[in-house]
TrEMBL record:
It comes from Thlaspi arvense. PPR repeats lie at residues 248-282, 283-317, 318-352, 353-387, 388-422, 424-458, 459-493, 529-563, 564-598, 599-633, 634-668, 669-699, 700-734, 735-769, 770-804. GO terms for biological process: chloroplast-nucleus signaling pathway; mitochondria-nucleus signaling pathway. Gene3D superfamilies: Tetratricopeptide repeat domain. Signal peptide: none annotated. PANTHER family: PPR_LONG DOMAIN-CONTAINING PROTEIN, TETRATRICOPEPTIDE-LIKE HELICAL DOMAIN SUPERFAMILY. It holds the Pfam family PPR_1. InterPro entries: PPR_rpt, TPR-like_helical_dom_sf. Belongs to the PPR family. P subfamily. This is Pentatricopeptide repeat-containing protein.
Length: 844
DNA sequence: ATAGGGTTAG
């Protein structure tokens, strides 16, 4: 499209166009297309030239029809270099003619050309819109202004930028300098105040409020309410409240909500009654806040009675009111009642919504009834309601808890592909938990990276989940790295993150370091919670350092921190580990002295110690005590009981135990099955053991090991061989242990050839073969005087880059003539210390 | 303005 514009014989233009005689020759008028193509694409033209040209062109446009030029070829070329000052100038001039045209020009530049307007232009348009009472549009452009101002304010820490008071300052300057006498100025100031407060720019809003007071401008109730809202959980709430002249329903319900958040529930109820005297009366919203607080504190009955009060006051309970109560009932475990209330919502004139169903689904989830949770979600979809992020998150959580991690990953993908914006890190955190708990740490880390790449910055919880997962798997280095990264992002670790780190240290056996870290936190003045102490106490107990565990326990008591069951359970474990069951038993009684109730873990730990001794009577005694106290045994408990039967030579009773489990609704898991199979193997009942194995739905590598070990133990090596073969043919996943067990057996039996064959398979399949695996074989071969064969393995070891240790050399030396050979082929590899040790051994 | 989703020791 070609536009023509009337020529203006300005000297400026002639000067600019002097390098282009062909253009100047047209003199009175010229083609815009020509100008566009020839002039602007020429590199000769300087920015000064362009600047003059814009001014001329724009003033030319002002004189003729604007709209035409704006869409013209020329303008599109020019707009990339258009300055904010030019636009301000044009808009000011346009105002005299038509404010509407000015607004149109503003929007057109912004929406079609993506032009970023100045503070002045934006505020100019704001005033026009305010004057015309176009509040929606006013709100939209001012909100954008505030947000962009916040982003470009330079002097802030990234995480606090929203709250810095730099953004409002410049806007206020322009407002008070250029727009003081406009009719709509109060409206614009008030809108600015309201929006800054609603965007949680608290400092900015206070600055604006101060300025407005200086200028004697009116502050609307809406703006004040928003400020009040931001201060509702602090003492300053009343200061704001007292400044509000025209208090309304929102003001009162915000105060009630604030008091609830400040844990001043009685004050809230009192205030609600007091506001009843005022002409408007209480609102449902206030009741909702109070009910919600009672529910969170665990007093559903109070919430219920307030629900009745709402009805008595002649108010109508809203969907919120219902949802709050339904949620309270679910948290209290009263799922039936909750479900009933959902059913009668329509009688109260409201319909359940997505939130209602989400609450109900979560309620079932909390009770472990995950299939019913999915059922609720299905109902919701049938009703034509659409799932939201939270619905997906609840399903995701359920799938992960069922162990269906891949299904979880699929759900997360579905969510993204259906265009549901995640908005928060929570769905990813749920997925991270699932991955970490199943040891899929690599995938967790890659999801963590993806989150960052997609602009979802992990928060404290997300970091804690991954750090904890890493520590549990002993990946301490990456954990420390992430911990530092988190701190550098100004995300302060909390007790849970610290706990993860302590756990990592303990699991690596670095108890001294863990204790030092704990002590340093104590002396830095942190009040540590019991969980942190428990982690270290448990670390001591697991390593059999019962004295240290007790010492730290005494520190806990001395500090006035209340221990919990887990603390005592660790002590029980520590005593059991050091074979002091009498003391362990005393700890069980001590739990009661502290007013605590022993848990399944307390009993199971102690039962395990008795079971290892074959003391089935004591196991039974504890089992009855549990039953009397209404403590439900777990799968773990039953496995311990079965193990006890086996060691106590009373295995015949195992079917009885299985029946008992099933009657209690506990499905035997793989560990139970493995325990039974192992027990049957010990008593050489292979037919039953294999029978059990055949019916197992999903045997684990441990199952195979147990069977192979059992067969070898009773000398049935051929059977073990063919079993391993059959497993290899079925291509099931075998662990190293399956091979090494069989290899050892062949060494003992004196069949080094088969041992060697299997050993080579082990290496072939890429297992991590360590010195202990070699020494196990060499030891046994030497004992059987199979020196040549031992030499074979010794050479194999050296060829694989594994250095012999002192013990292995001793063994080789002891078996007669191999001394010289050992020295020749490998001893040089050992350290001088080891060599000295060897020499002293030889002298003896 | 009021409701719903994620982390911890045995």
């Amino acid at each position: 499209m070609i536009c023509r514009f009337i020529a203006f014989n300005s000297s400026k233009v002639s000067r600019i166009l002097s390098p282009f005689p062909s253009l100047l020759s047209t003199k009175s008028s010229f083609s815009v297309a020509k100008l566009d193509d020839e002039l602007l694409s020429t590199t000769n033209i300087t920015s000064d030239h362009k600047d003059c040209l814009y001014q001329e062109v724009l003033s030319g446009m002002k004189k003729t029809g604007f709209r035409e030029y704006l869409h013209g070829h020329l303008f599109r070329g020019l707009v990339s270099g258009l300055k904010q000052t030019h636009v301000e100038e044009i808009m000011s001039e346009l105002m005299d003619e038509s404010p509407d045209l000015s607004v149109w020009f503003f929007k057109e530049l912004r929406d079609i050309y993506g032009f970023r307007h100045s503070r002045f232009s934006t505020l100019l348009v704001s005033h026009i819109l305010a004057g015309q009472r176009r509040f929606k549009e006013l709100q939209a452009i001012m909100e954008q202004l505030l947000q962009e101002e916040g982003k470009s304010t330079p002097f802030v820490f990234s995480s606090f930028s929203v709250e810095s008071s730099g953004s409002a300052y410049l806007i206020c300057e322009v407002l008070s300098k250029s727009f003081r006498n406009w009719d709509s100025t109060n409206v614009v100031w008030d809108m600015l105040l309201f929006l800054s407060s609603r965007l949680k720019m608290v400092d900015d809003s206070l600055y604006i409020l101060g300025k407005m007071k200086d200028l004697s401008l009116n502050v609307s109730t809406q703006a004040y309410n928003s400020i009040l809202y931001n201060f509702r959980d602090t003492d300053k709430m009343w200061d704001v409240y007292n400044r509000i002249d025209g208090k309304n329903e929102h003001t009162y319900s915000t105060v009630v909500d604030g008091l609830c958040r400040q844990q001043k529930l009685e004050d809230a109820v009192f205030f609600l009654r007091a506001s009843e005297w005022k002409d408007i009366g209480p609102s449902v919203v206030s009741f909702n806040s109070i009910m919600s607080t009672y529910c969170k504190l665990g007093f559903v009955d109070m919430a219920k009675s307030f629900f009745c009060t709402v009805l008595k006051c002649g108010l109508v309970p809203s969907v919120y009111t219902h949802n709050i109560l339904i949620n309270g009932l679910c948290l209290a475990g009263a799922i039936e009642e909750a479900s009933g209330l959902v059913g009668c919502m329509n009688k109260h004139g409201v319909e359940p919504d997505t939130v209602t169903y989400n609450i109900l689904a979560k309620g079932y989830h909390l009770l472990g009834k995950i299939s019913l949770a999915s059922e609720v979600i299905k109902q919701m979809l049938d009703k034509g309601l659409s799932p939201d992020v939270i619905t997906y998150t609840i399903s995701l959580c359920g799938q992960c808890q069922l162990g269906n991690i891949d299904e979880g990953l699929r759900l997360l993908n579905d969510m993204l592909s259906e265009g549901i914006e995640l908005k928060s890190v929570i769905p990813c955190s749920v997925m991270l938990t699932g991955l970490c708990k199943t040891g899929r740490i690599e995938e967790a880390l890659s999801l963590f990276r993806d989150m960052k790449a997609n602009g979802l910055s992990p928060d404290l919880v997300a970091y804690s989940i991954v750090i904890h997962g890493l520590c549990r798997l002993g990946e301490f280095e990456i954990a420390v790295w992430l911990y530092d990264e988190m701190c550098s992002k100004r995300i302060l670790p909390n007790s849970r993150t610290v706990g993860a780190m302590l756990l990592g240290l303990c699991q690596k056996g670095m108890l001294l370091e863990a204790r030092a870290h704990l002590d340093s936190l104590i002396s830095a003045g942190y009040r540590l919670d019991i969980i942190l102490y428990n982690i270290v106490i448990d670390g001591y107990a697991k390593s059999g350092c019962i004295e240290e565990a007790l010492e730290l326990f005494r520190v806990v008591i001395k500090s006035g921190i209340t221990p919990n069951v887990a603390t005592f359970n660790s002590l029980i474990y520590g005593y059991c580990k050091t074979l002091n069951i009498a003391e362990a038993r005393k700890i069980l009684d001590a739990i009661k002295l502290y007013g605590l109730v022993p848990s399944v873990v307390s009993y199971t730990t102690l039962m395990n110690a008795y079971a290892n001794r074959g003391d089935t009577e004591s196991v039974d005694e504890l089992r009855l005590e549990m039953k009397a106290k209404g403590i439900t045994p777990t799968n773990f408990t039953y496995s311990v009981i079965i193990k006890g039967l086996c060691i106590g030579k009373k295995l015949t009773k195992y079917k009885q135990v299985l029946r008992d489990m099933i009657s209690k609704g506990i499905t035997p898991d793989q560990v139970t099955d493995n325990t039974i199979i192992q027990s049957l193997c010990r008593v050489k009942d292979f037919s039953r053991a294999f029978e059990m194995f055949e019916v197992m739905k999903s045997p684990t590598p441990a199952t195979y090991n147990i069977l192979i070990d059992g067969l070898c133990f009773h000398g049935c090596i051929e059977k073990a061989d063919s079993f391993l073969n059959s497993l290899q043919e079925r291509d099931v996943s075998l662990s190293k242990f399956a091979y090494t067990t069989l290899i050892k057996a062949h060494c003992v039996k004196g069949d080094p050839e088969t041992a060697a064959k299997l050993f080579l398979q082990l290496l072939d399949r890429g297992f991590d073969v360590c010195i202990r695996d070699y020494s196990a074989v060499i030891n046994r071969l030497c004992r059987r005087k199979l020196t040549n064969e031992a030499k074979f393995f010794f050479r194999l070891m050296l060829s694989r880059g594994v250095s012999p240790d002192l013990d292995i050399c001793r063994v080789m030396i002891r078996s007669s003539d191999v001394f010289a050979w050992t020295i020749k082929s490998g001893l040089l590899l050992i350290s001088s210390n080891q060599r000295n040790g060897l020499l002293s051994h030889l002298i003896c």
